[in-house]
Amino acid sequence: MTSKRLCFEPGHKPKCLVVVDETAEWDRAVYYASRWAIRAGGGVVMLRIIEPEQQSQEWLGVADIMRAEAQEAAEAALDRASGRANGIAAITPERVIREGVPMEQLLAVIDKDPDIAMLVLAANPGAEGPGPLVALLAHAVGTFPIPVTIISGALSDQSVDSLS
Predict the structure, then answer these.
(1) pLDDT tens digits, one per residue of 23-71
(2) Between helices 26-40 and 60-89, what is the axis angle to 10°?
(3) What does the pLDDT read at residue 52?
(4) What's the pLDDT at 127?
(5) UspA domain: which residues (predicted)?
(6) CA separation for the pair 92, 86 (Å, rounded)
């Protein structure tokens, strides 16, 4: 059960949640969310989800190394995305790294922060499909606890400026 949204209550401000993943189009979502934050007087929360690897008992040492490398890669990805948001809107986004099943982690982050008012994703414009998270959300959007905004990965900065 998702907690009540408080983003427009006194002492709160609305935030966009953006997933920074391995796809090329994450930049479009960060750009839109950063522009939205300027206009709404809100903030941006950037989420990186590390999916757990299947591991057997004899490979636990290797799994620990892989987990540390994934954590380091997540920090680097959020550094790039935060730098982009700061360059666009002079904001310092909140950063969250979670490990687990993507949809479960996404919902847990939304449930934990009652100021998150919207999820912003970008869709791949190519023939291979919109991207794994957009495809996954397509099945859950009717029951999703907050609005979902999907930005085309083909939009230029100028096009996003005119929409946000």
Answers:
(1) 888 999 999 999 999 999 999 999 999 988 755 555 667 777 888 899 9
(2) 50
(3) 80
(4) 76
(5) 15-125
(6) 6
Q: How far apart are CA 59 and CA 108, in angstroms?
A: 29
> The CATH number of 21-162 is which of 3.40.630.30, 3.50.30.30, 3.40.50.620, 3.30.70.120?
3.40.50.620
CB atoms near residue 79 (< 10 Å): 12
Q: What is the CA radius of gyration of the chain?
A: 16
Helix (H) or strand (E) holding 122: strand 116-123
- Single-letter residue type at 95: R
Query: For residue 152, what is the enclosing H or E element?
Result: strand 148-152
Calpha distance 12→43 (Å, rounded): 10
